[in-house]
Amino acid sequence: MKKPSIVQLNNQYIKDENQRQRFLEEENQKKNRFMAWILIVIMLLFILPTYNLIKSYAHLQDQHKQVTKLTKDYNTLTSNTKSEQEFANRLKNEDYVKKYARAKYYLYKKGETIYPIPSLLPK
């Protein structure tokens, strides 16, 4: 086998170049560390607003669900109120009150027989 024919020179110029190279590598490492710290700080600065944004969005979704539920309840109560008002207006009619009392509470006159039919009961 043949020996390699490369010989390393170890003079002052080579030592200075090696030292300059190490210095440049250290400077690059310092710059990289500094940039890494800046990146971490920027990420932390974006985490808090993002968290607040997500929290606000979740709160907004909850409020939207609540508005939907309340709207549905309002519509139900409005229809119930209308039917109750119609019933109250019908109770102002004396003939209707008599029929209602006879059907609902089985009131009868002497000598009468009552045969209740559920489908004919007033509402």
UniProtKB/TrEMBL annotation:
Gene Ontology biological-process annotations: cell division
Keyword Transmembrane helix on entry: yes
Segments crossing the lipid bilayer: 34-54
Species the sequence originates in: Streptococcus urinalis 2285-97
PANTHER family recorded: CELL DIVISION PROTEIN DIVIC
Taxonomic lineage: Bacteria, Bacillati, Bacillota, Bacilli, Lactobacillales
InterPro entries, sorted: DivIC, FtsL/DivIC
Keyword Transmembrane helix: yes
Xref: Pfam families: DivIC
Superkingdom field: Bacteria
Keywords: Membrane, Transmembrane, Transmembrane helix
Protein name per its UniProtKB record: Septum formation initiator
